[in-house]
Amino acid sequence: MAFLCLFALPFAGFGLFALSTALRQLLSGAGHSQSWLLLIFGLVFSGVGFGLIFAALYGSKVAKREQRQQAENPAEPWRWREDWANGCIVSKIRSNMFGAWIFAVLWNLVSLPIFFFVPQEAAKKPVAYIGFVFPIAGVFLLIRAIRQTLAYREFGRTCFEMASVPGVIGGELKGVIQARFPHSPEHGVHLRLTCVHRVTTGSGDNQSTRENILWRGEFDLSPAQIYPSPGGTTIPVNFRIPSDLQPSEKRSSRDEIVWLLEALADVPGVNYHDIFEVPVFRTQQTPAHPEPDTVVAVPVAIRPPALTVTITQTAAGVEFYFPAARNKGFALWTTVFLLIFGSAAFFLFYVHIPVVFPLAFGFFALLMFYVTVQMWFGTTRVGIGNGTLLVQDGLLGGGKVRQFAFSELASIASKITSQQGDATGTPYYDIELNLRSGRKVTLGRTIRNKQEVDWLIEEMRRLAGLQAKAMAAGTVP
């Protein structure tokens, strides 16, 4: 805390000095354009300085409270946070709103001087107009902050009331979300529970945070399952959690496992999207040694209205065909990255800089070329029937056909292999066949819809005579 305060003091001091100087010039009537620039810099620097000091003091207070709770409850980490211990978790919608406004205001204040300098430079070099990209981005940031403010005013201060604390690995996360819906969601509410590995790397300007989705369960509530309450609207939540997942854990300030509960609904005006960080831990209710052959009752997967996979009844059984270009949006993004890395490699080679740089960009370009080809042209055909499972994996319907007897099959499960966005983004699933020999065979790649993945796995298991031998994601409506 002391180091952060010392680091922030020069920013706060320079900001106050710049503010006082600018105000003195403006009030005396001697102000000019440079006085306004000085005023802007003063606001930015003092805001950053005092913001860091406040964050340090508040963070220290929270840390001391958590340390006291840790000492009192060393074996119960879900009691270390006040909201977790109370079982009433406030959503991130309010904090996200404040964060959006702070970032938008700072960005626009920093971008304001561009309006003074760019027109002068553009008269000499028209390329200087590129500088207007920054204030344009600031407009979008302001729109984002306004939308989050409207969402907060629309839905209020929502909270997730847990039926029992914590959510249990190998058990359930259960409770209700207390929200306020001025307009009833005609299509119901979509709920998601996500296990995320959040890692921060680098430092200073090179610092970045990566949020990898390890697991996600999701389901839909119909309008009939949402009921009114004295405070507004009650949304029931009940997720089953597999026993092989990681619990909430803060390994360090740069490495942690977090569990996020999301609720989404399409309503007139601003759409509803709430995020709660929930406690999920191993407790006495967690199975110590789950029996591998124990069949756990899980909800029956429901076939989605639209499938990206073509299913055909043949003389030999049932064929599942995963066509090319199933995820055109994802494929388009990989194509964009391919063009970026490819162009960079060509440019660096052309200007004759050290060969290591074009080679590095060239390597990533080749990697993106492979991924792009798979996204646009990759296909998989799976046939199940007559005691065998056939797999043909290649491009545009081609590829070598592999055959496995039912007696060789151990299990069929899903696996997250890629994602778009951060913790609240979109994961993509592969369907994976595990053989008794220990080998793994991919039966389908980059499927976006979790409901479709679960239904396909259940159908393949049924046709192959397999049963789910581990707890799957699900809900008890």
Secondary structure topology:
Blueprint: H1 2-27, H2 33-72, H3 82-86, E1 88-90, H4 93-111, H5 114-124, H6 133-155, E2 159-162, E3 167-168, E4 172-179, E5 189-201, E6 208-221, E7 227-229, E8 232-240, E9 249-252, E10 255-265, E11 272-278, E12 280-281, E13 310-314, E14 317-322, H7 328-350, H8 356-377, E15 378-385, E16 388-395, E17 401-405, E18 409-420, E19 426-435, E20 440-447, H9 450-464, E21 474-475
Helix pairs in contact: 1-2, 4-6, 7-8
Please give a structural write-up:
With 477 residues, the chain is an alpha+beta fold. It folds into three domains: 1-72; 76-281, Immunoglobulin-like, CATH 2.60.40.640; 310-475, PH-domain like (Roll). Helices cover 39% and strands 30% of the residues. It is built from nine helices and 21 strands. The chain has helices spanning 2-27, 33-72, 82-86, 93-111, 114-124, 133-155, 328-350, 356-377, 450-464; strands at 88-90, 159-162, 167-168, 172-179, 189-201, 208-221, 227-229, 232-240, 249-252, 255-265, 272-278, 280-281, 310-314, 317-322, 378-385, 388-395, 401-405, 409-420, 426-435, 440-447, 474-475. The strands form five sheets. Strands 1, 2, 4, 7, 8 and 21 form a six-stranded antiparallel sheet that branches. Strand 15 (378-385) and strand 16 form a beta hairpin. Helix 1 packs antiparallel against helix 2 (33-72) and helix 4 packs antiparallel against helix 6 (133-155). The two termini are 46 Å apart. Residues 291-298 and 469-477 have low confidence and may be disordered.
SSE sequence, one letter per element: HHHEHHHEEEEEEEEEEEEEHHEEEEEEHE
Measured as a percent range, the helix fraction is 25-40%
| Mean pLDDT, all residues | 84
Give the low-confidence spans. 291-298, 469-477
